[in-house]
Amino acid sequence: MLPWPRRRNALPAMSALHGTLIAAFTLGAALGAGPLCLLLYRRTQQDRALHAALERLAREAAATSGPTHLAAGPYPAPLQPLQQLLAEQAQKLAEAEHARAALEIRCRRHSDQSARVARILASLPDPLLAIDRYDQLLLCNPSAQRLFQVDPNQDQQASKFLGDARLNALLAEMCWRPPGLSRSEDFELTHPDHGRRWYRATVTALSSRPNDPECRETMGVSLHLRDITQLKVGQRQHAEFVSAASHEMKTPLAGIKAYVELLADGDTQDEATREQFLGIINAQTERLERLIENLLNLARIEAGVIRVSKHPQSLNEILQEAHRVVQPSAQAKPVTLELQLSPLYLPVLADRDLLLQAAINLLSNAVKYTPAGGKIWLRSRLEGDRVEFEVEDTGVGLSPEDCERVFEKFYRVEKNRHMAGGTGLGLPLARHIVQDVHGGTLSVISTLGQGSTFRASLPAAHQPG
Question: Under 8 Å CB-to-CB from 316, ≥6 apart: which residues?
């Protein structure tokens, strides 16, 4: 074993060793801190780049309504997966936005189309309904709502408010027919405002897939109702006219035939009797001629083909001539036919023959329906810029209902048929002549059992100078 060195020699050695260790430690620390500082520097730079990239992303997102595009880098490597993900999401959002805009356009178009259809349905004067095969109301336009007093916003069975067993049966049958098939039938229904009316109902089976021509499944029916009351009235009046006209023509023809046969047989040698027979034949011939003339004139006026020749006329002169024509019939009944004409000159721009025909028809009608011993007045007057004439009688009169219909073609008061024959054409023809040809008005005021007054009002003709 070596002995310890002496203390006086150890101190310098310890000092040298201490210095060496410090130097070595300092050198080692310097050598180890270099890479660490470099690493810290690089990390700081990456953090700054990341921060700048995030700020750029934020600016791009704020500059648009949605993330539709991201600028191409350069992005730091750690952000590249995020960039890709954001780009994909931005593309999906752009596609979704495009689809949303397209859907919004389609919805707007459908909404506009639905609004147009609703306006069209609301403007239709005819009632229109749609009913499914289970009797539930699907659609009902305002006209149908008024007719059936139905609320379309409530679930209702159509058979409950339609109120017609035959119509309900037709709807139930058509619900199981092939789509597109239609049937029409006439029904009399009660309108809340107009009473009983005739309607032509057209029922059509509806396809469950309207855009598929191969579809054979029916989802329900549509019901369209057209008011044909006037058509029905016209058909009834036409039938009545044919019957009345046939009777009116047959009566004079039968008389003519009978008296012609008597004359032809030579059984009548008396000259006075032969003259009487010829007079009867002539009267019946004139009656038939007037009937045919009325028919032809009415047809011509309605067709607009009658030749009208208007000239300034004296209304009083026309009325005086009408009085002369009808006076023999009045005396034969007998009834009193009195003239009460204005002392003024009453000018009227008129077709003389047609206006004369209207006056004769009004006077003849009064004679027919005034009992023997009654009175008839024919008057004229000036009213402002119009001239008027009226025929007043003490006849059987008319009810308010008859007053509304007395100018209809072929209309005759049922209870007055026994008093006189006729076709129901005289008054309609007179109104056509006064109103349609001469631009005037023809009205009636009547009290049942007390008589009637028919008043014609015409524009006065302007006098020169």
Answer: 341, 342, 345, 346, 380
Tell me the C-alpha distance between 63 and 254, whole Å: 105
CA–CA separation, 89 vs 363, rounded Å?
Answer: 96
Residues 201 and 164 in one domain: yes
CATH number at residue 175: 3.30.450.20
Q: Has residue 63 been placed in a domain? A: no
Distance (Å, whole) CA 429 – CA 258: 31
- For residues 129 and 167, membership in a common domain is answered with yes
Q: 3-state DSSP call for residue 192?
A: coil
Residue 39's pLDDT band (cuts 50, 70, 90): low
Rounded mean pLDDT of 408-432?
77
Q: Do 355 and 447 fall into the same domain? A: yes
352 pLDDT above the threshold of 50? yes
Q: How far is CA 408 from CA 364, 411, 424, 426, in A?
A: 17, 6, 8, 10
Q: Can you give the pLDDT at residue 9? A: 46
Of 168, 166, 233, nearest to 196 by C-alpha is 233
**Cα dihedral across residues 387, 379, 393, 284: positive or negative:** negative
Task: Specify if 243 maps to a domain.
Answer: yes
Is the domain of 292 the same as that of 332? no
The pLDDT of 427-449, averaged and rounded, is 94
Query: Quick one: pLDDT at residue 11?
Result: 44
Nearest residue to 453 (alpha-carbon basis) of 360, 340, 363: 363
Q: For residue 236, with 0-12 CB atoms within 10 Å meaning exposed, 13-18 middle and 19 or more buried, which class applies?
A: exposed
Query: Is the residue at 208 inside a domain?
Result: yes
Give the angle 226-232-237 at the CA atoms, nearest 5°. Answer: 155
18 inside domain: no
* φ, ψ at 265 (rounded to 5°): -70, -20
| Gap between the Cα atoms of 45 and 20, Å rounded | 38
Half-sphere exposure of 382 (CA within 13 A, CB side): 12
* Mean pLDDT score of the chain: 82
Peptide bond just before 252 cis, omega within 30 deg: no
Mean pLDDT of the 342-370 span: 94
The verdict on 190 and 329 lying in the same domain is no
Residue with tokens 């070595």: 24
The tally of domains found in the chain comes to: 4
Q: Which H or E element spans position 198?
A: strand 195-207
- 209 and 245 fall within a common domain: no
**What digits encode the pLDDT tens for the residues 261-307?**
888 887 777 888 888 888 889 888 887 887 788 788 878 887 877 78
* Domain ranges, residue 180: 125-227
Residue 79 — very low, low, confident or very high, per pLDDT cuts 50/70/90?
A: low
Structure pTM? Answer: 0.53
Among 252, 270, 302, which residue terminates a domain? 302
| CATH number of the domain to which 454 belongs | 3.30.565.10
